[in-house]
Every structure is written in structure tokens, then in C-alpha cells.
């Protein structure tokens, strides 16, 4: 059951997302096309040269640790000029390492990506990086998210991303920036390597881990397989200006006519198939019973009796219209033995759409089989966040949001990490921020990955279980220690040098 604390906490925040809309159509088109490149490990790995330069800007040596600050230009700007805001183009990070490693051949480094609202470095440095250093001699790289902290656009307030496209630009930046940092760590003799994050940072870490062709520790915390549920059924959906998004979606034909055809909702068909297979035998019998019931209704309608379940305008004007057809049943033959339906004239009849929620009695006429076939999102009850999408145009804009999020964030669209045995995912059972119902499971997408569940909601897990998150990171690095010594990996190489990449970039912006 979704945590009530998550819902209450979300209502207390004044953050509003996507106040300026979906983003420029031309930018979205570029992002959707580029997603197909960075979602494949073979093509994405070749985007970042091994000699990609990183500038060290500050170094502080303490009694037992050293804090280093550095920066570099995000590779996404080089590959997609003009998409990344100017203030976000320079990536900033902090590196915290021990003054003395316990084993000079074993220098583990973990990249920490920020969750929603986690600006600058202090929170991750003090709550995760320093304890990891003290307890397990694990170094940390704390990378600033685009649109946050030092990389926040001047006209942006707090964490209020202006456009839906900003989420995808952020993800594209982090995927390529992690490759830069992995290469830099290898050049400086660090390893084994890993990446982690909480909430949004956990999902960004999952995306980044898919494109490294060697064993990599991955510990995503409080995230799942896609961001679509976060913004359509989770409590975050209440912070979105849906009215503005719907208006923009229909006022500019590029969104509806062109961009909507470039995205795909993934889990509806998957969940429907899973439910159908799991409940097939039971559903088959129930379908026979429902067809028999429909015959009786057909006979009642033929005797000029106004049925109270199947109606059309003109037959029962005193009753509410129904989503079901009446006259179309007249020329419909039902064979309950062979389970075939020959409907010749159904399309010629007018369907009257019910705009209010059907009554319980009306709902009972829906075949029980359809309860298993319909997408879970269409069967949402009180246990899901209701964002009151009742009009057809609202539902279409909502589906566009789901399609966009699945297209650019669903893990099924990305390569499987090189070694899934190094993945330990930590999820909250009652997470209202990151709903899991109706979404593909991590175990199915990444066979061999381990998923652990906390008996908590999103907020309570974040506040109370930091120690558990750290212990999972330590455990995963212990597993990696044995594998790392074997120095295995795919033989992928980037054929372009940084100098060649810059020359191509300069030519593109002229």
C-alpha cells in the first residue's frame, strides 16, 4: 500500500515541474533519435574517447583523506550542440579518497548521482561518501547533476525543471559523463569501479551502468525499471501542470502528429500478456459464462425490453449512456463452445461513450477476461494516485508522457549491464514516489540482479536507512574484488580521439 507519509510530504513541497511545457519539438526529436545511440553499449561507448580531458581545480589534503575537485565539458554538448543549457555544459565533481589505501592493487571508487532536489555535494559527501571511506576504504566521486547546484540555469528556481525534455537531457549528460569519469579513474589506477544513487539518482545510475563494457558495481536505491510511473501515477504527478501540458500538446501539431509516433509505451502490452498467461484457464471459463450472459441480454433486447446494462441513445433516454453497444449485438453471433465471435455490423453502429464512472452493476457485465487483458493503468483503483484524467484529450496527453518516459528511461530500451551479479537494488515496499505496479521487474530485465525490499515508504527509507544503502554498496564491492582481479571485459574501443571530437563539434556549430 502506498505510503501516506510520501503523499503528505509531497504536498508540503512547493516544487512544480514542467511549467514551460514539453520542451522544443526539435530538441525532443533530437533526444528521441539520440536515445537509440546511447541505449546500445556498443554505440554509446564509442562516443567518449578514452583520453577525454578532466581538469583538476582544487585539492585539499586532510588528516586521513584527500578531497579533489574537478570539471570537464559534458560530452552531450559535443554530440548534440545547443540542447544542453549553457550553465549546465560544464560538469563539476568532487573526489574523496583515503590518503593511504589498504591495498595498493585495490582502489575502489564509486560514483554517486543525485536524487531529486540534491544540489551541490555536501549531502552525499557527509551521509554516504565519508562513512564509506571510514568503514570500507572506498573512495567516492560526487557528480553534480545538470540543472542542479553549480549547473543550475539562471532562470530556474530550485529544482523546478522547466520542460519535460530537461529530464532526458539530464539523463543523457549523466550517462556520457559517467563514461568520462570511468575512463579517468582507469587512467589514474583506480578500480574496481561502481555507481549508485538514491531515487532519481538510482535510476540515472542504472542507465549509466548499462554502457560500461566491464564489470561494474551498481546499487540503485529507491528506483525501478522506468520513470513513467513516477510522473503519471506516483505522488510526483501531483506537482505537474497537466493543464498547460495538454494545451501545448494539442496546440502544436508537432507533438501529436510527429513526436508521439516516435515513442512507445512499453509495460501495458507486457503486463497484459503476463496477466493473460497467468490467469488463462480461469479466464477461459469465465469468458464462456460471460458470453452466455450476453446471449440472455441479446434475447431481452430483441423482445423490446429496455435492458439496464446495454443501452444506446433512443432506446432508454431516461438512463445514462453506456460504454457498451446495444444494437450492434443484433447481428452478432456468439458461439460459446468454440469461443468465436462473428460481429459483422458492429462497426456500423454508434458507440456512446460513458463520461462518468460506471456503476458496480454495469461493471459486472465486463468480461472477467478483460480484467486480465486490459493494461493495469486502465484498471487503477483507490490504491493509485488519481490524477483525474477524464477527458479524451487529457488521456492522450498522459499517454504521450508515458510514452516519452518509457522511450528514454525504460531499462528494457537499454543494454543489460555487463555483469548483473554485481547489481544490488534496494526498493521500498510502500513507495508512493516510485510505483512498481504495472512495470517490468528488475529481475526480469536483468537476470542475475538482486533486489532487496525495505518495509518502508520512499521518504522514511531515505531518512532511516542510509546505513543499509551503504552496506549494500560495500557488499557489492566485495563481490567485485574477486572479479576485478581477473580483468575481464568486452573488447569495445572508441576510435575517435578527443581532438577529433572537438574539431567535429567546432564544425557543427559554425
Automatic annotation (TrEMBL):
Keywords: Coiled coil
GO biological process, one term: cardiolipin acyl-chain remodeling
A single MF term (Gene Ontology): phospholipase activity
Coiled-coil parts of chain: 277-304
UniProt-recorded name of the protein: Uncharacterized protein, isoform A
Record organism: Drosophila erecta (Fruit fly)
Amino acid at each position: 500500500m502506498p505510503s501516506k507519509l510520501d503523499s503528505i510530504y509531497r504536498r508540503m513541497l512547493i516544487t512544480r515541474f514542467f511549467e514551460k511545457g514539453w520542451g522544443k519539438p526539435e530538441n525532443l526529436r533530437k533526444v528521441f533519435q539520440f536515445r537509440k545511440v546511447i541505449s546500445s553499449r556498443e554505440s554509446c561507448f564509442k562516443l567518449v574517447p578514452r583520453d577525454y580531458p578532466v581538469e583538476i581545480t582544487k585539492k585539499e589534503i586532510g588528516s586521513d583523506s584527500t578531497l579533489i575537485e574537478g570539471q570537464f565539458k559534458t560530452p552531450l554538448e559535443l554530440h548534440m550542440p545547443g540542447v544542453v543549457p549553457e550553465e549546465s555544459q560544464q560538469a563539476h565533481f568532487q573526489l574523496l579518497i583515503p590518503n593511504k589505501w589498504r591495498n595498493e592493487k585495490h582502489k575502489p571508487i564509486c560514483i554517486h548521482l543525485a536524487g531529486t532536489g540534491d544540489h551541490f555535494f555536501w549531502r552525499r559527501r557527509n551521509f554516504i561518501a565519508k562513512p564509506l571511506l571510514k568503514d570500507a576504504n572506498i573512495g567516492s566521486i560526487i557528480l553534480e547533476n545538470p540543472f542542479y547546484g553549480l549547473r543550475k540555469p539562471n532562470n530556474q528556481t530550485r529544482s523546478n525543471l522547466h520542460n519535460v525534455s530537461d529530464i532526458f537531457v539530464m539523463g543523457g549528460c549523466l550517462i556520457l559523463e559517467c563514461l568520462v569519469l570511468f575512463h579517468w579513474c582507469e587512467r589514474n589506477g583506480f578500480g574496481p569501479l561502481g555507481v549508485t544513487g538514491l531515487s532519481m539518482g538510482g535510476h540515472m545510475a542504472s542507465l549509466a551502468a548499462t554502457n560500461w563494457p566491464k564489470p561494474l558495481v551498481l546499487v540503485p536505491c529507491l528506483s525501478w525499471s522506468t520513470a513513467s510511473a513516477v510522473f503519471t501515477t506516483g505522488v510526483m504527478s501531483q506537482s505537474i501542470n497537466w493543464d498547460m501540458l495538454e494545451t501545448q500538446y494539442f496546440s502544436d501539431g508537432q507533438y501529436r502528429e510527429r513526436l508521439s509516433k516516435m515513442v512507445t509505451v512499453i509495460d501495458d502490452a507486457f503486463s497484459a500478456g503476463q496477466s493473460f498467461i497467468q490467469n488463462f484457464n480461469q479466464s477461459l471459463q469465465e469468458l464462456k459464462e460471460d458470453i452466455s450472459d450476453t446471449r440472455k441480454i441479446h434475447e431481452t433486447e430483441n423482445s423490446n425490453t429496455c435492458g439496464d446494462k446495454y443501452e444506446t441513445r433512443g432506446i432508454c433516454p431516461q438512463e445514462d449512456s453506456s460504454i457498451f453497444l446495444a444494437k450492434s449485438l443484433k447481428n452478432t453471433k456468439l458461439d460459446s463452445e468454440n469461443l468465436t465471435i462473428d460481429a459483422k455490423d458492429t462497426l456500423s453502429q454508434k458507440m456512446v461513450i460513458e463520461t462518468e464512472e460506471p456503476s458496480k452493476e454495469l461493471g459486472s457485465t465486463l468480461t472477467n477476461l478483460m480484467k486480465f487483458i486490459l493494461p493495469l493503468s486502465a484498471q487503477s483503483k483507490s490504491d493509485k494516485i488519481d490524477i483525474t484524467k477524464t477527458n479524451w484529450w487529457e488521456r492522450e496527453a498522459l499517454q504521450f508522457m508515458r510514452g516519452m518516459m518509457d522511450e528514454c528511461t525504460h531499462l528494457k530500451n537499454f543494454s543489460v549491464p555487463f555483469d548483473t551479479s554485481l547489481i544490488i537494488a534496494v526498493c521500498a515496499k510502500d513507495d508512493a514516489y516510485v510505483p512498481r505496479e504495472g512495470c517490468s521487474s528488475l529481475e526480469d530485465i536483468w537476470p542475475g540482479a538482486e533486489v532487496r525490499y525495505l518495509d518502508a515508504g520512499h521518504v522514511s527509507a531515505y531518512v532511516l536507512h542510509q546505513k543499509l544503502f551503504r552496506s549494500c554498496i560495500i557488499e557489492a564491492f566485495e563481490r567485485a574484488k574477486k572479479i576485478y582481479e581477473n580483468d575481464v571485459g568486452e573488447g569495445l574501443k572508441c576510435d575517435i580521439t578527443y581532438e577529433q571530437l572537438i574539431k567535429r563539434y567546432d564544425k557543427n556549430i559554425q
